[in-house]
Amino acid sequence: MRISTKVECGIIALLDIALNANNENTVKVNSISRRNNISAKYLEQILPLLKQSDLISSVKGSSGGYRLQRELEDITLFEIVNALDRSILASSKFSKELEQNATDAIEMCLWRPMTSYLRKYTQSMTLKDLTDMYYERKKYNDDISFVSVRI
């Protein structure tokens, strides 16, 4: 399954903030951009969506930047994905040109079970799980110089 670049970069940005905003400090867009090789302008389009969903907050000024709004274990992957693209975990919509029996069969046998599984999985996976996985991988690969998680 492929997800959009916006969702992938949003997850990476949140993970970067989680890893680098120690003790109430903020993380600057340019720092996230540099560490992860993501355009700062692109991040400036993504981060407001995460802020609108109350996943992060922003601080203005010279020491400003972004920080998590809640604890790592209280932010689910489901919330993150929905903040960035509501269509991924939504119910499918078929063309009205398809015959109803075919549409029903496809919906019942394929899309509904897949969507249900993805929803359950993303609701159980938290930002803490992602940071734990990052640190576990870092233990075995000290060459990790930036957060680069491909989902």
Topology:
Layout: H1 5-20, H2 29-36, H3 40-52, E1 56-59, E2 65-68, H4 77-84, H5 100-124, H6 127-140
Helix pairs in contact: 1-2, 1-3, 1-4, 1-6, 4-5
Plain-language structure description:
- The protein is mainly α and 151 residues long.
- It has a domain at 5-88 and 126-140: Arc Repressor Mutant, subunit A (Orthogonal Bundle), CATH 1.10.10.
- It is built from six helices and two strands.
- Strands 1-2 form a two-stranded antiparallel ribbon.
- The relative contact order is 0.17.
- The mean pLDDT is 85.
Descriptive key words:
Arc Repressor Mutant, subunit A, two-stranded antiparallel ribbon, 6 helices, elongated
Unreliable sequence segments? none
First-last Cα distance? 9 Å
Kindly state the mean pLDDT as a whole number?
85
| Spatial arrangement of strands, main beta sheet | 1-2
Instruction: Let me know the number of strands.
Output: 2
Mind telling me the CATH superfamily name of one domain?
Winged helix-like DNA-binding domain superfamily/Winged helix DNA-binding domain
Q: H/E order of the elements?
A: HHHEEHHH
Number of helices: 6
Just give the CATH class of one domain: Mainly Alpha
What Rg is obtained from the alpha carbons, in whole angstroms?
18 Å
CATH architectural label of one domain: Orthogonal Bundle
Describe the global form: elongated
Helix content: 55-70%
- Strand-residue proportion: 5-15%
The CATH topology of one domain comes to Arc Repressor Mutant, subunit A
Biggest beta sheet attributes: 2 strands, antiparallel
Structural class by secondary-structure content: mainly alpha
